Amino acid sequence: LEINHEGQIFLGYKSLYQFTGSDFTVVSTEFDDLIDQLAIDESDSNNIYVSVNNKFYQSIDKGVNFEEKFTFSSNITTIEVHSNDSNIIYITTSGSGSRGVFKSDDKGVSFTNITFNLPVDQPYFDIVHQDRHSKNPLFVGTSLGVYRFDDTADEWKSFFSNLPVVPVRDLEISLDDAKISAATYGRGVWQSSPFEVKFSKTC
User: Fold this and answer.
1) Kind of pairing, strands 146-149 and 55-59?
2) How far apart are CA 112 and CA 184, in angstroms?
3) Which of 22, 86, 81, 82 is nearest to 50 (CA)?
4) Could you give the CA distance from residue 16 to residue 34 in angstroms, rounded to a whole number?
5) Cβ distance 32 to 71 under 8 Å?
6) pLDDT tens-digit readout, 58-115
7) Among 135, 130, 136, 141, which Cα is nearest to 178's?
């Protein structure tokens, strides 16, 4: 489920649905399988991206029509559109094929592998881009914790001080105070300020 900047709610099942009135209505035609990931461009809500297994699709008309843009060697676990540049898209993959972190500078026509020094023998669950920051930080949640990368770095840095060694399934960043929240598998939700680089449990 995703909400665009206009407040419209979209849901992925075997087709893309939009909440209108008091119920969800079908927007797109059916895919071959269930939609796994759904992302909406914050800068242009006409741009909607979905993944079905290892296939990446793009719509430029708010989900009415989708075009298959890229196929990865393993299943897509996250789609993240850059907060203020519609051309940049980040993808994480995990599964039996080559798993990793990928970046596109052309709206998903091509992708570059930016896994770099991340441990390759682990799944990648989520990736988020931090808006309102000159260095364009990225955070990725893995089975070992959280890692950080930005425009001034040449490798990923661990970002999980005080965080238990546990899969991090979901990451969120607050725009107002830039705090990052990490939802773990079975160990609660943890939060860190951007200056402390240290997590504390919130629930």
Assistant:
1) unpaired
2) 28
3) 81
4) 10
5) no
6) 999 999 999 999 999 999 999 999 989 999 999 999 987 778 999 999 999 999 999 9
7) 130
Which pTM does this prediction carry? Answer: 0.92
Q: Is the pLDDT of residue 195 over 70?
A: no
CA distance linking residue 39 with residue 50, whole number of Å = 6
Spatial CB neighbours of 20, under 8 Å, sequence gap ≥ 6: none
pLDDT of residue 198: 72
Tell me 82's DSSP state: -
Nearest one of 132, 135, 37 to 90, comparing CA atoms:
37
Residue 1 predicted with pLDDT over 80: yes
SS3 content of the chain, % helix, strand, coil (to 5): 0, 45, 55
pLDDT 10s digits, 107-164: 999 999 999 999 888 889 999 999 888 889 999 999 999 999 998 988 999 988 888 8
**DSSP 8-state code for residue 31:** P
The single residue listed with the structure tokens 């990451």 is: 171
Structure tokens at 86: 């519609």
The answer to whether residues 136 and 145 touch, using CB atoms and an 8 Å cutoff, is no
CA angle 134, 135, 141 (to 5 degrees): 125
